[in-house]
Structure formats: structure tokens, C-alpha cells
Amino acid sequence: MPAAVWQVRVRTKLDDLHQQLSFLAARGAGNAARVAALRAQLSGVEAVLGRSGVVEWLRGGRLEYAWQSIHAVERAMVELRTPAELLGLLPAYQAAAAQFLKADDKVLTAFDASTDVGAPALFQAKVRALLQQYHSASDEFHESVRRLRNRMLGLSVFALVAEALMVLAQWRSRDVQLLKPPTDAAGVPAWRLLFFVLIAGALGAFISALPSMINSRSGGLPYKLPFQQGLLKLAIGPLVAVVGIMLVIGGLVETTVNSTAALLGVAIVFGAGQQAVTAFADRRASELLTPVTKS
């Protein structure tokens, strides 16, 4: 049983390819050796399906190996198909490739049904070139998405660690206060006040990010970019809240904080302002997902 969604997709694709190979093998004895070799290549993909550790999850080696092997088998199967079969499959190949290739790419526009069937070798070469270009673009796209996911995850972890260290340092240090307590919180320990400010900042980040996260789409990708974007916002929001309140207390922002409620309210506002900091990640994710989500 597949342990992850991406493995379900791989498993489904493997089953489909095995069915196609069975059909190709039954059609002629001359295909038997080639089909057996392709089945052996697919069996290597089946061996990597299963649970993986955190390091493998970050690197994505199994995922890339699985899909690149599947792509290689798909390209090799072109030689086993008749020109009529390739002509029937061509629209599906072109539609899949159009998600990643430009509309005027030569490998998409180089086909002519009236002449291609009469030149089987050339037709097969054109189809293989289309699949090669499409598969390369798809692999590069998924690698870019995985790198972005890892960067956002790294930033989120760094922000959470920084916040934990801030609370710990404030708890250990009684001489230096990062935040000046309001008059109605004079007896509250500084670390506890800082902790509540961080929570308020996370609340503001959550409120501001909620609409975009509800409307976001992952395009069927295995990397769950919308989830990573939301995690980054929740991690950055508290830091922005603390920095903003420091600016207020330092007199760099024209407002005053005279009560705990006002302090937490300002923290929520600044936490919501994390959008200005995390906008770069949102733009990059949108750029990457646009070719997939529009299809």
C-alpha cells in the first residue's frame, strides 16, 4: 500500500504502463525481449515505494528516480507502437507537454498528420523528441518546487528557533527587557509577556493568511506548497510583531501602548503585516504553480 499521495500517483502510473506493456507484448513475439526489459526497469521503481525518512523527504531522491524511470519507459515504448497508435496518442502527449512548454515550441508544432504516418521512423523520432522535452521540463519544474519548499521550511524552522531562543533568553535574563510592560502588567514576568506577544503575532499572521490559503491550489504537486507558505507566515508573524512593538516602544512609530490589550492588539496588527515579508515566497510559488493550476 503506498505510504504517500505521490506514491499513489506513481503506483497508478505503473499499473497503467504494465497494462500497456502487456498489450504490446501480446501483439508480437518480436516485442517480448524489449517489453521484459521495460518491465524490469519498472520493477526498480516499485522497490522504492514505501516509507522514507526526513532526509529522503527533503532530498526527494526516490520521487525523482520514480518519475524519471517512468518517463524513460514511456519514451522507450514509442518504438513499440505503430504510427496509427502514436497518431491517436499524440493529442494527449501534446496536452500534457503544453503545461510545461511554450505554445510555439517546435517539438509541439512539428507534427503533420498527413505526412507523419507515411514516415514511421521520422514520426517516432518526433514523438520521442516531444516526450524528451516535456519530461525534462517537468523534472526541472518539480526540482524547482522542491527547492522552494525546502527553503521555506528552512526559514520557518529558523524563525521558530529564534522565537524560542528569545523567550529563553528573556526568561534567563532579568536585567534586559525586550518589551516594556504596560502599566497594568507591571508584575508580569518579561518572558511571559514576550510569549503572549509572539502568540498574538501568530494570530495576526493566521488571520491575514487565511483567505489566500483557502483559495490556494497545489496543482496536484506532492510538495504541498500552500501548506509550507502558511507555515512560513505563522513562523514569521511573531518575529514581525516583536520588531514592530520594539519600534513602537522606541518611539519610531507614532502610537502608544498603555495597556496589555493595546500591546497585544498592536502585536496582532504587526503579525498580520508579515505579508510584506513573505510576499517574495508567495510570488515565487505563484510563478511556479501558474503553468500547472491553469491546466
UniProtKB/TrEMBL annotation:
Ranges that cross the membrane: 152-171, 191-210, 231-253, 259-281
Top-level taxon of the source organism: Bacteria
Keywords for the protein's UniProt record, in alphabetical order: Membrane, Transmembrane, Transmembrane helix
UniProt keyword annotation of Membrane present: yes
Record's protein name: Uncharacterized protein
Species this protein is from: Micromonospora chersina
